[in-house]
Amino acid sequence: MPEKQPLSTRLPETHPVVCVLEVRNLSKMYGDFLAVDDVSFSVGRGEIVGVVGPNGAGKTSIIKMIVGLVEPSRGEISVAGYCMRNAPEEAKRLIGYLPEESPVYEEMTALEYLDFFADVYGVEREEARRRAERVLDELCLSHRERRLGEMSKGMRRKVMIARSLINDPELLVYDEPASGLDPITSAQLMEYIRRLRGRKTILMTTHNLYQAERLCDRVVILKGGRVVAQGGVREIKRRFGGVRYTLRFRSPGSRGSGSRVVTCTSLEELNAIAGEVVHSGGEILDIENHTSSLEEIFLTVVSGS
Ligand code: ATP
Fold this sequence. Notes:
Elements lengths: L18 E12 L2 E12 L3 E5 L6 H8 L7 E6 L2 E2 L4 H6 L1 E4 L11 H12 L3 H14 L14 H13 L5 E5 L7 H14 L4 E5 L3 H7 L2 E6 L2 E7 H8 L2 E8 L9 E5 L2 H13 L3 E9 L2 H11 L1
Parallel strand pairs: 3-8, 3-9, 6-7, 7-8
Antiparallel strand pairs: 1-2, 1-4, 4-5, 9-10, 11-12, 11-13
Helix pairs in contact: 3-4, 3-5, 4-5, 8-10
Bound molecules: adenosine-5'-triphosphate.
The site of adenosine-5'-triphosphate (ATP) has 11 residues, from strand 2 and helix 1.
C-alpha cells in the first residue's frame, strides 16, 4: 500500500471514505476537438458502475484518463483520495486496468505472463501464483501452458482479467470486458465480474445494455462527450422509462378466436378502457405490462438530447 500522502495530494477530510473513484469536471480536447466535456461522477466502494454511450461518446478517453494513460485537459480524478495529477503513482497502484485491446506478450504462457506482472507490481511470486490460479480456475481457463499468441481471444481476455487482479487492486477499470467474445465466454466473464461485487469497486464500459442492466448498480450515459443521464439503474428506469399496458379483448358479439389489442401507458387509461370493454358487453382476454429496458431508455435518451 502507498504511504499516506501530504494533505495537498489528498481530498479534504470531509470527503466520504466510501468514494473510491471521483471524477470531477473532466474534459479532454484532442487538438480543437472536444471529446469529453465536463464529465463528473463517482464510484462508491464495492459498487459496479457502467459507462455507456454510442461509438465515439468518449468512454475510452475517460477510462484512459482515469488510469493515467491520457492527460486530462481539465478536471480532477482521484482514486481512494489520491489525486491522479499530484500522486499518480499512488493512484495507479490501486487500479487494475483491462484495456479493450491488450498488447500481449505472444511468446509467454499465461502463468509466465502473470508472473512477469507480479514482479512489475512487486507481488511475492507465491502469492501471485495463488491469486492467478484462483482467478483462472474461476474463469475456467484451460490450456494455461499454451503461449498467449496461440490462445483464442476469449482465453487471452481471461488472462488479462487475471492480470488486472494480480496486485489485488481496490479499483478495477474494465474497458469493454466482453467485446468480441462469444455469448458463453461473455456470460462467464460477466458472471465473474458479478461475483466481485462488494469485494472490488468496478468501473466498466460496455455496449451491452442488457448486461449493464443486470450487472451495474449505477450507469453513466454519455453522448458526444457529455453525461446525458446518470444514476442507479432503477432510478434511471423510473425517471426515463415507463410502463406500457397491452389489453387484449373480444368485442361484444364477436365469435371464434378473433380479438383486438389496445396499448396505453397509464393505469388510469387502462382502467378506463377495461371499463368500456366490460360495459359494452365485450370480454377482456388478458392484460400484459411491459417496463422499459435500459436499452430502450438508452435509445430514447441518446437519440433525444
Ligand atoms: P467506441 O465505443 O467506439 O470505443 P468511445 O466512446 O470509447 O468510442 P473514444 O474512443 O473515447 O470514444 O473517442 C471519443 C472521440 O474522440 C472520438 O470522436 C474519437 O475519434 C476521438 N479520439 C479518441 N482518441 C483520439 C486521439 N488520440 N486523437 C484524436 N481524436 C481522438
